Amino acid sequence: MPERRTIEAARKDKRAGMAPTTQAGEFVREEIHKIRRGQHGARSPEQAIPIGLSEARRAGVALAPPKKGKATERTRKSAAYAYAAGQHKRKPPRRPRVSRAVSQALKREPQNSASHRALSRHATRAASHRTASERAAAARKAAHTKGAAGRSAAARKGARTRSRRGK
Description:
Helices cover 70% and strands 0% of the residues. It is mostly helical.
């Protein structure tokens, strides 16, 4: 169950006109914090991220399931179920035994899959699958939706990082 502040942050993103993926990012962030706190683990960042996306879909974020060929059939079906549940198209049956089994299985997984190093490795690998123009377009869109105050804060942060690294 997602925390109230995560749902509120996602709603705030929606009001600001941000994409469903940005709204879902709040849930992914919460999932990573849960893993770092030791509430449960994940085998890899590639597992931690879809857990967050699934939570987002169930919470009502309009994040469509992946298209055919983008993910396995099993993943697509699972995402479609979560999406339908979040959009009130389907009332999921309560399955306490399955829920408990999933929780116990996740508790046995390692916590270092949400470390800064693991996430950085994942981001680098994911970015390498995209073209330079795709990455540039994403950066332009991010700058456009950030707003003046956000851009200013990001510029200050970048300047601080550069000065720290001596560049």
